[in-house]
Amino acid sequence: MSHALMFVITALGWVGALVGLVAYAMVSQGRWSPNSLQFQLANLCATSLMFLVAAVNGVWPSVAANIAWMVIGAQALLVIAKARRKARPRLRPVHLPLVESPLPGMTAPVVEHREVRPAAAHADLRVVAGLR
Hints:
2 domains, mainly alpha, disordered C terminus, elongated, 63% helix, two-stranded antiparallel ribbon, 4 helices, single chain
């Protein structure tokens, strides 16, 4: 392997170490939550870069530790993504009555613009849909 490529890989390893230390400091100072997306992404980035350096240099205990770290980080990101997907509001189709359009022979759904509050969302949709 060329010296230039080894220099780049080593530099990336130092970047990974710095990213990991910054992430650890941010959590330790209470600026990031341990289960935050920023922390988990920083950890995954750090371990991936340090894995690269360890693998190129044949430091197998470090390779194994970084693989475990990557698996844990990837699993944490999946948990975060699943929680975000679950927390996202679900949209349900609403069947609206049709009225005559100003254009001859065309119909259009009745659309009302209302502020929908989470607690009353279902009641408001029934009013808009003409079900009440």
